[in-house]
Structure formats: C-alpha cells, structure tokens
Structures
1.
Amino acid sequence: MSSPAKTVRVTVDNRVIEAPEGATLLQVMLDAGLDIPHYCYHPKLSIDGSCRLCQVKIDGMPKLQISCNTQVRDGMVVHVADPEVESTRRGVLEMLLLNHPLDCPICDKAGECWLQNFAMRFGRGTARTIEPRRKQGKRMDIGERILLDQERCILCRRCVRFCREISKTGELAVFNIGDHSQLDIYDRRLDNDYSMCVADVCPVGALETKDFHHQIRVWFLEETASVCPSCSNGCNIMVSAARDRVWRLVPRRNDEVNDTWMCDAGRLNYRFIADPDRLRAPLVVRDGALAATDWPDALGAAATAIAEFVKRNGAKALGAIVSPHLTNEENFRFGELLRTLGAGRVAMAVRRGAHDDFLIKAEKAANARGVRELGLVAGPDDGLEELLRACEAGEIKALYLCGDDLIDAVAPERLAAIVCRLELLIVQDLRMRPEFARAAIVIPTTTFAEKEGTFTNHAGRVQRITPALATPPGWMSDGEVFTALLNLVGARNDRFDLAGVWAAIARDGGRLATLRLADIGPHGAVLEPAPGA
Amino acid sequence: MAVQVVKVRRPAQSFSSANPWLAILSGLWVSTRHFLHNLGLFMRGRQDFAIHFPEQRLVQPPALRGMPVLVQMEDGKERCVACGLCEWACPTTCITIYPAETTDEVERYPKIFDIDMARCMFCGLCEEACPEEAIVMSRQIEIASYSRAGSLWHKQDLLVPVAQLKTRTDYLRRNYDR
C-alpha cells in the first residue's frame, strides 16, 4: 500500500462511506456500523473466504462477491439490502445448518453463538431436510484445555489459521474434502500456550474450553473491561462474573497490546479470586497467636506497632516490600505512607517465570513497571538484594510486606532466617502463608477483580481496571488500608478515591504526572519516554 | 439514511376477528350454560353445591398450572439438560440451576436444580421456554410448608415420573403445537 493512504468513497445502499484505499470491503462496512454476517473473516487472521456468508452485490461484477476478499475501489457501488443478497444468505445458512446438531441446550456457546445469531436474523427459521444429520466426533479431547465437537463445526477454518499464523504451531487442519471435510488435529495435540484462543475465534461451539465447559450460561454473565493481572504484558480482558464469582476471563481487543489474544496461563488464573483459603478478615497477634479481628482494630494495631517500633529503633530500621500486583494509585499511597514514616529501605519482589516473544512476559505481575515509574524502588533488582542484606545485617528490623512474591524470589532458608530476625512483620496478602506465620498483623489484600485503578504494563502503557465483583460490607481495599494508616500516623484526613489520588500524583510531579486519569481510555495511554531514555 | 417503505403482507382477516361481538356471545353462553345446569340440579333437589375439600377433590383440568415439576424418565434420570432457559425466562428468578457433565450420550445434566416455591407464581413461562419438555406445570397445588426452607424444592423433590404427567404433556403438545 502506498503511504499516505488515499481515501476512496464507496456507496453501500445509497450511503457513501469513506475508506482508505486497499481496505477490505467487509471491514469498511463493519466499521461503518453495518450489520454484515460473516464467519471466516477475522480482523487478525488472513482471509480465507470459506464461509460465503458475507456476499454482497457490487455493480459491474457478474456475480455476488464475498466482501471479505474484495478491496474497496473508488466509486464502488455495493448493495446489501438486496433480495439476491438476502436469499443467498438464507441459502448459505441453510447449508451450514444441514448437518448442525442443534444441541444448543447443552452447548456452552449458546447465547454468544454466531450461528444462532445469524440464523435467527438472516436464516429461514425452519429446516426442510428430513434426512438424518451426519454423525461425527463429539466431546473429542484434542488438547489439555480444549474440547472439539466436529458436528458443530462449520469449517470456517479460523482456528486452523490461528494455529498456523498466530501461535505458529499448526496443530489443527481440515481433513478430507467436500461433504467429508472435518476439523481435527494432526498427531500432535492442541497444547500450545495460546490454545484457548481457538475457542474465542470459533464462531460456533465446535471448540470449547474445558475450563468453561458446562459451567454457566453466558447470558447470566456480566462482563467488565479489565486488564490481565498475570504478567507485565497487561493484556486487555473482559472479566465475566455472575453469582458473586468470576467464571472466565476472555481477551478484549487492543491492537497496541494483545490484538484479540491472551495466553492460557493468564486466562486460567482467576481461581485465586474465589480461593477458599483467602483471608476474610485481618489477623492480629493477641496472646501469642494470630486471631481474626475487624478492620479498624487491625489498622489501629498496625499504626501503634509501627509508631512504637519507630520510637524504639528509629525509622531507618523500617523496611518495606512493595507489591507489583497493586495498582499505581495504591502504590502511590503506599509511597506517601512510607515517606511519612521515613522508612529506611523500600524494595520490590517480583515473581519471574517462563516467557516468549509474543505475549507472555517473564515478570508475573501486572504493575512492576508502575512501581518503578512511581520512583518507589530503584536498581536492577528493584533494591531487593540490598534490603535482604540489610535485614540479615540487622539494619532493618521491621518489614511491611505487600504480596507474597518474596516467597518465590528468595530461597526458602534465607527467607526463613530473615523472617526470624525481624522484630515486627506486617503482611498484606491474599492468604495466610506459613512462611509469614511470625507476622504480628496480617491484612487481607483485594484482587484486581474487586477494585478500580490503573496498571502500567512492561511498555509503559497505563491501563484501567474496573471492579467486576463487590467486596463484602466493611471490607477495605489496599488503597483504603494505606490511606487509613496514613491518616493514623500522619494525622491526615484523606479518603481513597481515584480522582483524589490522581490529583496528588499530578502535584507530586513524577513520571505518572505526565498523564491525567481522563487520558486513560479503554485502550490505555502510554507514558512519555523517560528523559534520556 | 434513505427512508425505505416496507410493504407488510398481512394475513386475511378471519371471520371471528372480523366479528368480535361473537366472543361476547360465546362467553355469555358459557355463563348461561352453567346457570341452567345448576338450576336443573337444584330443581331435582340438590342442596349442596360446594366441594368438601380435602375429603372431596375436583378433577383438575389439564390446563391448570400447579407447581412446576421435573420430568423423570423411565431410567430414573431427569430429562432436563440444564440449558438454563427456564432460569432465564422465570420472572421471579425462583429457579437456580448448576449444570454438570455426565458420560451419557446427552452430556449435560443439572447437578443442582432448585425452585423456590415461595417465589414461584405459577406463570408457566419455564414450561413454555423448555426445549426438552423437561419442566412442566403439574396439577399439584398443595405445597404449603411451615418454613421458608421448606418451600425450597430440590431436584429430588421435583422429579415426577413421566407417566404421571401424561395429561399435561399431551395438553402441551396439543396447545403449543409442539
């Protein structure tokens, strides 16, 4: 394509649409808000032209054309609301439904199935065949996380193209020809790191994730736009929640981050939200043992313990480990708290794991870059080694610990030795970990699905998360905990809300201050490159 | 956007819809018939026109919508596949279903199927929504209980053998053109 792209004018049903030259007619019509049924076309996959549903009438062409494989030309006149187009759609849908099992009542796709939707809107409503439907493989276990139902498949080959072009593993193919075509795997099972995306691209229920199989009907789900918390890539997701729990995470399109994909590990990492071992109330040491208490009591105890410790040992003996799982706003508030206390050393522990050159990043936390951009930590290992040495040397005698990434970042014996030396340990975490059994105060943390805020991904893109679940009455999110502590130790009277924190961020003048909360749209906003970077 | 004129083809008017007063006459005829019937019984000496419930019971017509029940197949299993349409159709949200998988040919069944009879209003929308004829309105209307927990009916309480529901299923097939 030449650049700058020339604009052409296309007429669709008497409506003039402007589009860049060389664009696909189907995409142009979809972008203009027209309702064109299609199956095989996917904006992030190559053109296949196998479903024949997007056919339109174009003046000057002898027959109907598939709009997904037609480039727009200047002066092109297209007819969509045309009897010929409508009867062709009816015919195509009737053919796709010839052997479709119509087991919608037990199909997990029902409710978000493109075949259901288009057959209801553009199809003929009743079948004319009396012949028995073709029997093929059902509930075929083709991968660790994926089930295949060959009867439901409409052979659009989206999944085949996904495996060839995106995951570049090529497990799937359509075997045989004509009426005998069927989707199947080669001798290798569909076990790649992105395999569950084939269930997303599948317009029908032929490919389903085992994780969501027979869980809940999709029409009960409420979807909330959010960001995947599992690694620093920050894939945009939808959190599907119903009945006070999360049922699945699905990718949300963001061409700057994850296109329309996400990895299986991230997609399956939501069960911790409903972990039965999750702390439901703060714990405070009373009579030598940790006991559940209410929030104001625990925060009062924490503030008192910190104040007494500082009086005995000085603020320089207080260290903190920041969590890369908390939002920018919460970490900013935590930074304010640590500055008010005058904490000696601040570090961050980040769990690391496998990575690839596509979406999966090594840092298994959503906001490690955000913590660094806030200026809370510095150094190649985010100050962790220095802080640990200071603990071992006895310079740091109290630790405010957020998150449990420390358990994976430090060898167990070393961690146990450090914890034993501490005079005061305050832990803010999801569950009670045996490693931190010596904690004086344990405060429950709030997951990404229950709060709002922003995460900064590895590339410096600040993206918003929104709460999908409600927290129990009286519950305090991490930001509210930090704010309450700040109010107690700093004699302030703050509240924790996004607008207030962002005003403080703007006053603070750090790197995040180059953005305003309103700048962060559904696809996030990128931080200005650092001066000198 | 260009305005389009769509010509709608309407069905030809039937005789009864062209003459709505006929419905008034037929309604009057029902009342008059009952009046004349009871008048005849009274003239022949009948004194008592009440049904002495519970010793005496009316034979309920198949159109009666009693409490919804689940159809139990001959093999003892429910016909329900937990598709959730009744749950969605229910205006009082008294139905709660949790599906699960089996190794049977029909791979899905309700692990939990609860109806809160305290909330049910016997509208029959669940029965109408059901694609499997698995939930039907029975003729059972005596469902009072001493506690709220007692009016929460679980799957095992709701199952009724298919043979006992024949009157209703026949009625459904006749009237809903199934």
2.
Amino acid sequence: MGCRSSLFLGVALMAMAVGGAEARDLTVTSWGGSYQDAQREVYFQPFMKQTNTKLVEDSWNGGVGALRAKVEGGNSDWDVVQVEAEELVLGCEEGLFEQLDWAALGGRDKFIPAAVDDCGVGAIVWTTLITYDGAKIKDGPKSWADFWDVSKFPGKRGLRRGPKYTLEFALMADGVPSEQVYEVLRTDAGVDRAFKKLDQIKSNVVWWEAGAQPLQLLASGEVAMTSAYNARVTAANKSDNRDFKIVWQGGVYAVDSWVILRDSPNKEAAMDLIAFMSDAANQKNLPPKIPYGVTSKEAAALVDPAVLPIMPTEPGNLAVEVQLDTEFWVANTERLTERFNAWIGQ
Amino acid sequence: MGSILNLPPHATGAQKAWHVALWALTALVLAFLILPILVIIPLSFSSGSFLNFPLPGLSLRWYHELLGSERWLSSLRNSVVVAISSTLLATVLGTLASLGLQRARFPGHALVMALVISPMVVPLVIVAVGVYFFYAPLGLTGSLLGLTLAHTALAAPFVVITVSATLQGFDTNLSRAAASLGANQTTAFFRVTLPIILPGVVSGALFAFVTSFDEVVVALFLTGPGERTLPRQMFDGIRENISPVIAAAATLLIVLSILLMTVMEVLRRRSERLRGIR
Amino acid sequence: MTASSLTGRSGARIESRNLKAQLRRTERRRKLEAAALVAPLLIFLAVFFLAPIVGMLIRSVENSELPTTMPETAAALRQWDGIDLPPEPVFASFARELAAGQRDRTLAGVAKRLTYEVPNMRSVLFATARGLPETPNGTWRDTLTARDKTWGDPATWAVMRRAAAPVTPLYMLASVDREMDASGSIVKVASDRAIYIDIFIRTFWMAAVVTVWCLVLGYPLAFKLASLPPRVSNLLMILVLLPFWTSILVRTGAWVVLLQREGPINEALQWVGLISEPLQLVYNRVGVYVAMIHILLPFMVLPLYSVMRGISPAYMRAATSLGATPFTAFRRVYLPQTIPGVGAGCLLVFILGVGYYITPALVGGAGDQMVSYFVAFFTNQTINWGMAAALGSVLLIATLLLYWVYARLVGIDRMRMG
C-alpha cells in the first residue's frame, strides 16, 4: 500500500509540475514603493485596460547578480525589468537581455542619447541625493561634508548598501571637487581614500536597500539625514505631509532603462509594454506623480511646467549634480562590491 | 499540592525576599513574552499613519486597506493553498511513518528517525538554497507546487513527533482485540486505532499547518511575483514600509494563533482523557 | 512408552521449532510492514529534502563554468604541465572558443568564475573578445598578448588551469578565509578581505549569548510555573505558548515597531524621565538579541518546565528536613535533576539560533548579520553559488554535529513541541 500510494503521489506531482510549467502572465519588475505606485497609475493600469492583458508586478533592489540568477537559474519569472545604467551594459554584454525593437519605439533619435542602447531604452533620469527632515533640522546640511559631520548634525545617517554612490559621496565629503570624483576613484589610492573616509561614519550608518526604506527611516526619526532618490522625497512630502528637504548639491544622477530578460515567453507583449511606457503622451504624465526626468525628448517638452523645479533635469539642479560614470562602474562593480562587502561585514 | 518553596510561617527575611523576587522575575519574563504581541493590536486600530502612542483616534481604515488590497488578498490565498496542501501531504506521510516506526524496530531505525526529524534542525536558509538549486531545473521554482513540496518536508517531522507521542500511550491490545474479533488490518486501523490517535494526528496537522503558514525563508527563494505568500508580503512590508497595515495583518495572525492554540489545548486534554492518563 | 515419550518430546520440539519459526516469520512480516509504512515519507524526504541538500554540498566544489563553455581549452589546459606559459594549441583553442562565446553571448559564466580569483578578469576577457580577429597575427599567443598583456603572464594561466579542473577547493577555502596563491599553495587572504572566520565566530557567539539569556530568563520562570498548582500554571503557560504559536514575522515586526527611535519603548522611557534622548535600540546588536531571545525563549521554557514538573517536591522537603538550607537543597538536590531539561533547552535554542536569518535581517544592522545572511546574499544578490554552498556546508556541518550531540544526550524521540 505504501509503495502504491507513493507511486500515485509521484504521478500526481508530475502532472501538477507539467501543469505548472504553462505560460505565465506578463511580469514587470520595478523599484517598489511610491515610485512603482506612480508607474502603476500612469503606465501599468492604463496598459492593462488598453491592451486587455494581465500584468503582474514585482519589485527588486538592483544588482546584476539578481538578473543573472533569473536568467541562468533556468526558470525566470520576470519579463520587463527596470535596470540601472551599469546593469544595462553588463547584462547586455553577457546576453541577459533581448535586443529591443527600436522601430516599435519610433526610432533612436526620439530619445535623449543616454537613453538609447541595443538592449534597453531609458525609463527615467533620477538623482540620489541628501535629504533631511526640515521639521527637525532648521539650518540643514548643504553638502556631503556636512553629511559626514556628526558633531554639527548629530544622529544616524542612511546610505544605500553597496559601493556605487557611497564611494562618490565619500570622496566629495573628503573635499574632492565633484568633476574630479571619478578621476580620483580610478586610482587605487582614491579607492583607499574613499574607504578611509567611510570608516569615519561607519558606526553611524544605517544601510538601506530598497528605495522606500530611507524615507521610512527618516520619518521614524531613525536617521537624521539620508541619501534617497529625489522623487521619493517629494512623494513622501505629499502623501505623509512631511517637510523633507532636498539637497541637489552633490547629488549623482543616472538613467534607468527598461529591458526584456532573455528567453522571455512574453516577448511581444513585453515590447508592447515598453513602447507604451516610452510613448511621449504617456511619459509626460509621470513627473506630476513622481518628479523624475523623462527620456523621450517630446515628453520633456510636454511636462507640466509646475513640476520642473523639482526635477533632476532642471538646468539649475543639473548644474550642481554629478553624472554617474557608467563606464567606471561597468569595469569596477565586481571588484569594489567585493571590497565593500568585506568592509561592511567586518 | 504545595509549591516547592512554599513559605513556612517561620520563614526568614531572606526567604521572603527571595520569594518576592522570584515572583517579580516571573511576572517580568511573562510580560516580556506577551506584551510585544499585545502592543501591536491597538496600533492596528489607529486612525493615523504612524506606529506610536498615543493613538490620534480609532478607525478601521488599515483593515479596509488590508482587505481591499489585491496584493495582500492574493498572498493570503497563496499561503492558505500551500499550507493546506502541505498539511494534508505531511499528515498522511507522517502518520503512516509514525505507525511504521511504532510497529517494529527495523535495521537503521535510529538513522531513519534522525533523517525524519532533521528538517526541524537544518537551518532554513540551507534548505532554501538547496531546494532553490534543485527545484529550478525541474520547473518547481516560481510555482506553488515547489513551495508545497518543500513545506511538506519541513512540516512532516512535527506530525511524526506528535503522532508518535500519542502512539506511545496507545494500548496495542485494542487493535489485537479488533483483529481477534475478525476485523482486517485496514478496518482495525480506521475503526479502532485512528479514532484513538486522532487528537495526536490533528495536533500534528495543526503544527504542520502553522509551519507552512509562517514559513518565509524558503518562500523568499522559491516564489516569484505570482506566488507571493503572506509571510513574504509581511517581510517586504516590515523592511520597506512599516505602516499600520502590517499591524492589522499581524493582529489577524495573532487571532489565528489564539484559535490554533485553543484547539491544541482542547485536543491535548481530550487525548489525555482517551488514553486514560487522567 | 519410551518411544512414545520420545516422539512426544520430539513432537514438542518440532512444535516449538515451528512456533519459533512462526514467530520469526511474524516478526519479519512486522518489520516489513513497518518499513513499508515508513517508506513513503522516507522516499519523499530523500527526493525533496535530502537530495537538494546533497546537491548544495556538491555545488561547493563544482567547477563547471570553463569546462562547459570552453571544453577544448579546458581539455588542453588539463594536459598542460603548468610550467611557464601553455603551448600554442591552448592559446589557439582558447581564441576560437572565446570568439564563439562572444558571438553566442555565453562568456558570462567563465568571466564570473575567473573574477573570483582575479578581480579584473571580467573586463580583460570581454575586452579581448570584443573584435577578436579570425586569424592570428603571427601566433595566437602573440595576438592575445598584444590585445592584453595579462595573457602573457604565467599567473593568469595558472588560474585558467585551476578553472579547467573538474572540481575546485576555491569556495571551501574562501569560506575559511584561505586562497591559493600563484604557486598553488594555500595562504591566508589579505586582511581586508578576510571576513568569514569572523562571521562564523560572530554567529556562534550571538547564538551563545541568546542561549545564555534564554536560560537565565527561562529557568526561574519554568521553576516558578512548575511549583504552582496546575490550574494556575496551566493558565500562565498560555502566556508562554501564545508567543510560541505566533508567527515569527509578527514577533519580529512587533519588535521593530517597539524599538524604533520614536517607538513605544523610547517614548515610555522618556516619559518616565529615565532618558532624555531616545536610545538606539533597533538596527543594531541590542535589537537582534532582544528579538531573538523573545522568539527562542519558549523553546527553553517548555523542556525545562516538563522536566521540573516531573520532580517530586518530596526530595526538596527531605533535604531541608535533614538540615540543608533552601539554597543548598536547591543546589544539591533540585538543580542536578533539572540538568536534562537544561541540556535539551540550551541545545535546541543554540541549534535554532545558529541558523537565524529573518530576525537579524530585519532588526539588525550590517555588522549583526549571521552566516545565513551571507548564504542568502551570495545566492540571490551576487549569485556566487559556489560561495553560498561552501558557507552553507560549513554551517550545515556545525549544525549536524550539534544535532548529533543532542541525539546522544537528549534523544531524538524526546524532541517535543508544546
């Protein structure tokens, strides 16, 4: 009886496994929190209504490893993913992404140059910068040097876990002019210098991973100031009636892109979704909800002028920000991530 | 029934102090155990969006938000499906195995027992990584089936332990009597053995249910966006956005645990009565 | 008569032999039945639990990246004696398979594997592969070395040769902060990369601290509960059992809320006037300890309580009536009888504590993560699966040793829940 029942069980399980391998719904993976809430409203729900397809959402916190795990793990459950700049290059080189159909997007010259790649099209321009609670600190920090100054501004600091941004910020705090940050970082001595500067505040840092966390930490008073993504600060101010201040000075901006993971079973629908999200008529609706910069040239002209001052792409803001050096991070992510993880785990 | 350190009338000052101190310590430790769980409950009825006291007012808005959210509801659905399936599977497999382990000592008995119990002690992350590597090529990641299978393995030891404990008090003469009265083995099992060990089987099943319903580590590795379970949803919520919605979900889970605990206690008493312990 | 008595006796002997055989048959049948009843669960666990874990163990020495993507190069490298630079055919097959890998986009695995030993190999490999000519300019050795001088370095090829082997000790060595140098001997890694031994020590230390605290808090509690009349103690036991039945996430979440800077505990302490500034209680070691002790305390109290319930109060009374002070009576008579419960509780709490992941991940800071966190990190974030498997294997071995001790001292069948 034992044998027979286990045989039945086996057959039943096999049947379920085969059934489970059927086609799944189109899945889009973004960065969660208030950003994804806005995307849902502006892109995902209208797309579902218009095309009558079911869209499943997931969120992630970046890392090319996570993409490799999905593709090489052999059972990927993501189709469209919003990736960061160096992930786009690394993943494209490694064959983790499908090639995009640029004709379906209306041609490459419709987008700002940084948004154009064989494997991806720009989704947003966004900035990682300092934010603090205006209700608690009257005369707030103005630079990364202030951010490092725990005697002038007591309290914990929030930083994104990982070497990217962290090392740039450390060098700026150590007095490196923003236009020379990557020049210094390209030398071994520069990397050492950044880690040495980080040692100074290591015991005061709360490391975050998801974009929603720093605002949570700030709201609960867990940190006195934190790095955060610019538009999420605005969103938190709006939804929770907060007075979180944004410091554009020394913020690092970059372009995120939409990609399709290799061997996606929903390739066509995925391309439709990306085309929908890249359409100027839809893109122009994003900044009023969450003020990130848009990538379609046409959409940039259509955005409600009222939100321009709080967008990273506003010329005055752009002038004091630093552009992420994608090439540097493509070449050094592995090495510096390893060093950073050893440093943080010690 | 005297207490061990029952104070005689002539107790010294030191003894009295010790007596009071022990009571105080006991009360403190019990408070430490129970208060954190109870504190969450009022916070879930807050009308404000922050998790601290005093509450700005009372409302059910967070319960509305919880029960109106497709994400939370589908994660609840997934958790219930996985928990019930793995409970059924673990209970059948575990009960059969307990009967076998009880029936005779066979070669490798101790080793078998060690293997059967091991899912309880192997760190969850190791199970998670193992099944993640192993299930992926079989197409079992990103499916509720894969999670069910892993949870069954994790839950089975609880069934084996509880049912075995009940069987230890089971008088085998009863099934012999049934056999001598002409019942075949199957009939004897269903008519005599099962009713007596049923409380043990049911409490094993409850343990199995809770094991699966609470499990998050394996779920983090095995589930994709379509198979999000309740604990996984809670995990993301705690990490990224602790709002009173989490408190509302936690409160519902606490109510569930009170229910389960009550059922367990009733079963335990019933089983003790049936086995004539009391 | 003699004959009849003889037959009678031998008849009895035959009968008894028959009976014995029959008994043995029944016994054998019972054993078979028992095995058949256990088999379904055993098979299930072997396939869906044991096999995955064995698979993980194997992965900690697996070295398939280069042999899969560049089979010819790997075969040629294994033939090579490892002295100086490999012969031209190795360079030739490498160049051919490198170009093919670039075309089919299959180089990622090899790049990742080489990066584990030489951090910049990823960029070297891709830079060399990009636009590699189809025919060599002179020898392939010169062509490749001209494109990147790394290929002219014997140390590079020593790494390549190690990557071509069927198995590698790389990950297991790395999990104890060791690596192979260019000559193949085992050395300590540089101090800024040596973290895993510290992490193992931290893991065991944290589990030990939690165990001691659970004992310190749990022993008096169990003692008091066991000394109360059953009606009262059953009632108070509910306060121990409810947390036990409550989801770990609910409890961890509750602690995050309670310990926040502006959470109830800090507010209460400030209101009472004990502190003027909020204390940092969460995202650090304190928070992890508090939450872990809370979650694991019932596992200590339950075995202690069941042992203490079984101790007759008569022993203590006898000791005191013989003139022992209550303290001496406790120490000499009561305490020794509770040792089995102490052992069971401590081992259980320690075994469970060593494997903790969720609670430190949610309540702890970067410096409070235990081994499990790194296993998960390597699996999901960097997909260095060899490293995840190696750290997991060390953790598993440690746990199984403790489990074995538990089985010897306490007995597996005495493991009870509730």
